[in-house]
């Protein structure tokens, strides 16, 4: 292996030697190193060294990646050094796309190195031969560990590692990442029994600083918008002057829009592709191969390419709209050059004035090495249920030994005996309310005290339906007569209750009911209250939000901003107020015959969207006649027919105890959360042998079970899990609770005669939501300039 490095004119980097030392000492290891530092090769070097020195048959190393594409890319890159070293080491991938005959052969005659995903590993562990297949396993390498360790996929992987450690007690654990803010948190997650002293932390060399620029438009920074499409001609110019560019967008819809706009501006007819999760596998693979072959000058992509795919010819990354987090920005910047000693070149294209501040905050955070915090939480119980069922499919188990094994995984280290017993009872018969039905009797306890699968059909059912990623379904928006208007994201539609009104396709629609996968509506003359603004979106991280607050308050920073952004803030200070970093500024003012309240809380779009729902309900109860609300990452604007004289009454913490609970129970939100945990927990199957259930059939099944449990067993394990999901993931309730807890002590209420400069970006959104997609842009621009002129007047 040393000869191979020498032949290439390379020297192993310090962190690569440290990884070899850790392996020789039998230590687990976490490598934190910049993109381009050879992280993946560092993870494999001990394996290559061991297999060269002591050739062995059977599975030696398991490599786990968050993405199928990354596993395929690593295989391609790993085969080159193996071939050049002239050693006989088989490297294969195993994902959902691997042909069945190869999967069968891999279990009988596994390669020395197997590249897979957490879900495919979990499936492997459900087979009887997993007990022998993994018995000789020496190393597990987890790449891009930050991408899933803190979520449900991380829960599944932590449980899988605990099982592997029991099958192969001497197995080493290795994790790799470029963006880890809390190394000790990841060391604990990686370690058996959470003992961080067992995991050596290896840090890579710093590498060259990235070269990041904020693109300023040929004119002025826009008042509103979040796409950055105003800068398409300049983005096209960047593409023309670089070898290969990746253009990152925060949503799939935006990626399609930017792709279309670039083609319109592509006078040189340069080859440009698009890549996102809604595209077919064939389309994504085609784009990936074209990039690998150097056939594309640009690729428009979403988070589907955030991670590790190595295309050496990429020399520029462009971020359309604000990055929303410093860790995400650093990860995306790393896709350029992919070489440690050369600066990665990146361009940020902010969509509006607040996003300019956010882009500047992200740039400063990257320069100062500040990453977004990693939040570890207790493991999800639906994931635990799926894992225990997988283990049962492989072999009968003793409950006490299984609990001990599960507790060796950090997310479940504090799992109480009674909770585990409830999980086991749920898998065994569905729980108290469902135990009369044979279809839920999956496990039986034998006279030997061991739990085993009741009949083989349940094993086949588990393997067909296992997995953590549940596709986000859409709701069809329909009139009562069946006419279909289009689709909205279920995450938005499930929050609506009968009588709620929202804008869609330029119409004000009132909800009649939510049934299965349909949102039944009728056209209404009422002012629409809710908006379907781009559906689910990435929210600004608390780290970047805090930096934006400091920018606003620290006048010495303003000289760094473009003239129009600085003038905007100076006029805001003159006409209203600039909030201090810990202060909640609330403005009230009349505009176009309505009374408006704008709260600048910087808690992110998800929290603001939920708060808007709750506050309008409270306003209704207080007789304030709300008409609607709009939200972005920085502010929430509520408007109605009556003036709000006491905003503090709308922000009291008890809103989470009263309006929040009522809202969740009346809306379909909890049902949708239950659908996901029921699928993951194995209560409802997505597929039967030879056929797949439609989304409508799955929803119908889970809704029936949900209604039974709500009535007869309200404390059922999965109902509790659904509540946890609904609170934590769908509403960003942690940030919402913090906002409400501090509002009374930090609120600064300013009553104005007219709209303020800082309110302009969020107020323009009201006009945008009333306009059918693709029409009326000129009218919106005129409206934006009109509102801005009113806000920026001195008198």
From TrEMBL:
Domain (Helicase C-terminal) ranges: 231-374
Pfam families xrefs: DEAD, DEAD_assoc, Helicase_C, WHD_Lhr
The keyword DNA damage appears for this protein: yes
Molecular function GO terms recorded: ATP binding; ATP hydrolysis activity; DNA binding; helicase activity; ligase activity
Keywords: ATP-binding, DNA damage, DNA repair, DNA-binding, Helicase, Hydrolase, Isomerase, Ligase, Nucleotide-binding
Domain (Helicase ATP-binding) ranges: 20-190
GO BP annotations listed: DNA repair
SMART domains per record: DEXDc, HELICc
Entry's family note: Belongs to the Lhr helicase family. Lhr-Core subfamily.
Protein name: Ligase-associated DNA damage response DEXH box helicase
The species this protein was found in: Sphingomonas gei
């Amino acid at each position: 292996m040393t000869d191979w490095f020498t032949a290439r004119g390379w020297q192993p980097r310090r962190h690569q030697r440290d990884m070899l030392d850790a392996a020789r000492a039998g230590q687990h290891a976490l490598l934190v190193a910049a993109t381009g530092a050879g992280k993946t090769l560092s993870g494999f070097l001990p394996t290559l060294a061991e297999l060269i020195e002591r050739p062995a048959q059977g599975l030696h190393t398991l490599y786990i990646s968050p993405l199928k594409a990354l596993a395929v890319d690593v295989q391609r890159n790993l085969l080159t050094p193996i071939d050049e070293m002239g050693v006989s080491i088989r490297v294969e991938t195993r994902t959902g796309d691997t042909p069945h005959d190869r999967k069968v052969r891999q279990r009988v005659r596994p390669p020395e190195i197997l590249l897979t995903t957490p879900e495919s590993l979990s499936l492997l562990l459900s087979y009887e031969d997993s007990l022998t297949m993994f018995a000789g396993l020496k190393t597990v390498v987890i790449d891009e560990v930050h991408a899933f360790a803190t979520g449900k996929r991380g829960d599944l992987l932590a449980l899988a590692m605990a099982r592997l450690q029991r099958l192969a007690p001497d197995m080493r654990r290795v994790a790799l990442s470029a963006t880890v803010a809390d190394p000790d948190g990841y060391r604990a997650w990686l370690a058996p029994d959470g003992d961080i002293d067992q995991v050596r932390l290896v840090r890579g060399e710093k590498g060259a600083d990235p070269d990041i620029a904020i693109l300023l438009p040929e004119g002025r920074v826009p008042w509103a918008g979040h796409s950055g499409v105003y800068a398409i001609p300049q983005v096209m110019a960047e593409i023309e002057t670089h070898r290969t560019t990746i253009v990152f967008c925060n949503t799939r819809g935006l990626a399609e829009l930017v792709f279309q706009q670039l083609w319109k501006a592509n006078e040189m007819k340069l080859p440009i592709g698009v890549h996102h999760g809604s595209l077919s596998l064939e389309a994504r693979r085609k784009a990936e191969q074209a990039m690998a072959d150097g056939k594309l000058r640009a690729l428009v992509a979403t988070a589907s390419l955030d991670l590790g795919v190595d295309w050496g010819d990429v020399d520029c990354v462009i971020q359309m709209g604000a990055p929303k987090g410093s860790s995400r920005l650093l990860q995306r910047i790393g896709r350029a050059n992919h070489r440690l000693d050369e600066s990665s070149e990146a361009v940020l294209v902010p969509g509006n004035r607040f996003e300019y501040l956010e882009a500047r905050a992200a740039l400063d955070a990257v320069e100062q090495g500040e990453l977004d915090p990693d939040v570890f939480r207790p493991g999800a119980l639906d994931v635990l249920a799926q894992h225990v069922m997988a283990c049962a499919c492989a072999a009968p188990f003793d409950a006490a030994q299984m609990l001990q094994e599960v507790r060796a995984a950090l997310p479940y280290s504090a799992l109480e005996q009674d909770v585990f017993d409830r999980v086991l009872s749920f898998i065994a018969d569905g729980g108290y309310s469902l135990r009369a039905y044979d279809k839920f009797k999956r496990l039986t306890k034998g006279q030997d005290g061991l739990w085993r699968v009741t009949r083989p059909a349940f094993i086949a059912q588990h393997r067909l339906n296992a997995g953590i990623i549940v596709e986000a379904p859409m709701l069809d928006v329909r009139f009562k007569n069946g006419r279909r208007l289009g689709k909205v994201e279920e995450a938005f539609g499930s929050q609506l209750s009968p009588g709620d009104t929202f804008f869609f396709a330029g119409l004000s629609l009132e909800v009649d009911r939510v049934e299965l996968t349909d949102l039944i509506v009728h056209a209404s003359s009422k002012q629409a209250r809710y908006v379907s603004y781009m559906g689910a979106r990435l929210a600004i991280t608390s780290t970047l939000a805090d930096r934006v607050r400091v920018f606003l308050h620290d006048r010495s920073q303003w000289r760094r901003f473009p003239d129009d952004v600085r003038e905007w803030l100076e006029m805001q200070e003159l006409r209203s107020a600039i909030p201090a970093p810990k202060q909640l500024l609330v403005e009230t003012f009349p505009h176009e015959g309505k009374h408006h309240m704008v709260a600048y809380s910087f808690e992110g779009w998800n929290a603001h969207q939920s708060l808007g729902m709750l506050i309008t309900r409270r306003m209704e109860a207080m007789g304030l006649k709300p008409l609607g609300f709009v939200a972005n990452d920085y502010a929430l604007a509520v408007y109605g027919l009556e003036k709000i004289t006491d905003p503090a009454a709308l922000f009291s913490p008890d809103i989470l105890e009263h309006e929040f609970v009522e809202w969740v129970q009346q809306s379909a939100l909890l049902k949708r959360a239950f659908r996901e945990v029921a699928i993951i927990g194995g209560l409802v199957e997505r597929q039967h042998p030879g056929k797949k259930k439609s989304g409508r059939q799955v929803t119908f099944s889970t809704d029936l079970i949900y209604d039974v449990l709500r009535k007869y067993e309200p404390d059922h394990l999965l109902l509790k899990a659904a509540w946890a999901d609904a609170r934590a993931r769908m509403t960003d309730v942690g940030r919402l609770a913090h906002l409400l807890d501090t509002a009374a002590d930090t609120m600064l209420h300013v009553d104005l005669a007219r709209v303020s400069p800082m309110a302009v970006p969020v107020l323009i959104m009201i006009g945008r939501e009333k306009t059918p997609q693709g029409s009326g842009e000129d009218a919106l621009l005129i409206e934006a300039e009109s509102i801005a002129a009113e806000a920026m007047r001195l008198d």
